[in-house]
Specification:
This protein is mainly β. It has a single domain, classed as Acyl-CoA thioesterase, double hotdog domain (Porin, Beta Barrel), CATH 2.40.160.210. It contains three helices and 13 strands. Helix 1 runs antiparallel to helix 3.
């Protein structure tokens, strides 16, 4: 998720050589854009709102240039616009709002009856066991190109699921190795995870998976709101719902909860979900 600062408002990022996807993972460019913007904002401000559009597929063999536009530095709020480019063309753009911490009214929607992470097996172990038992199974590419996180899914793994089901899913995640970065950088790590599996939620009622040769899928937009502080070194639960699909698109929402039940972030995404003949 790191980007190299090459000028005051200009940054450069690359895709890890371990990447298995045919194009740049959306969560990567999202996190690298946030990483870049954070470094142009006063340290007493945190990102509370982000709205983005995926414009073109990213080329994994090329570096990505991030241009940060310092639109506004106000008394309470700071606004940044970031355009990610390859070969002179925009592949992604986002607007972010940062603000100072303050006390105010509080409430949240709770999430109940979720197994604790210690009660679940890690996803890697589950997949490896399935591959041993099913030698003809074609393992899907790993989206986590940075190999940063451990995941523990509540219920069936999306890549192993058969048939249709209700458009609800979730998993626990945390970093494999402890990171010491300040809270703004923890936000970038969570932004990266926020693109994991979210698009697939609206596919579940239709029994579709990413390995379907007739399925054309792509993230179209992405929004993220941060409600409170968290630590990606500790377990966080990502709950996702896909309430509607229509006109070749699926709409999905997600919420992030800490182990003590605090709702610390929310997300939404519309994705292309087109079945071709």
């Amino acid at each position: 998720m790191h980007t190299e600062q090459i000028d005051r408002l200009l940054f450069r990022g690359v895709t890890p050589t371990e990447n298995q996807l045919p194009r740049v993972f959306g969560g990567q460019v999202l996190a690298q854009s946030l990483n870049s913007a954070i470094r142009t904002v006063p340290e007493d401000r945190f990102m509370h709102s982000l709205h983005a559009y995926f414009l073109r597929p990213g080329d994994i063999s090329r570096p990505i240039i991030f241009e940060v536009d310092p639109i506004r530095d106000g008394g309470s709020f700071t606004t940044r616009r970031v355009v990610a480019k390859q070969d002179g063309k925009a592949i992604f753009n986002t607007s972010m709002s940062f603000k100072k911490r303050e006390q105010g009214l509080e409430h949240q929607t709770d999430l109940n009856n979720i197994p604790a992470p210690d009660a679940l097996e890690d996803d890697k172990t589950r997949v490896e066991r399935f591959v041993r038992d099913n030698p003809d199974y074609k393992r899907p590419p790993i989206a986590d190109a940075f190999q940063t996180f451990e995941f523990r899914t509540n219920g069936e793994l999306p890549s192993l699921r058969k048939g249709s089901s209700e458009p609800t899913q979730g998993f626990w995640f945390k970093t494999k190795q402890s990171i010491d970065n300040s809270f703004p950088m923890h936000q970038a790590f969570l932004a990266y995870v926020s693109d994991f599996r979210l698009l697939s939620t609206a596919m579940m009622p239709h029994g579709l998976r990413f390995n379907n040769a007739k399925l054309q899928v792509a993230s179209l937009d992405h929004s993220l709101w941060i409600h409170g502080e968290f630590d990606v070194n500790d377990w966080i639960y990502y709950h996702m719902e896909g309430p509607v699909s229509s006109s070749g698109c699926g709409l999905n929402f997600g919420r992030f909860y800490t182990q003590d039940g605090r709702l610390v972030a929310s997300t939404s995404q519309e994705g292309l979900m087109r079945v071709r003949d």
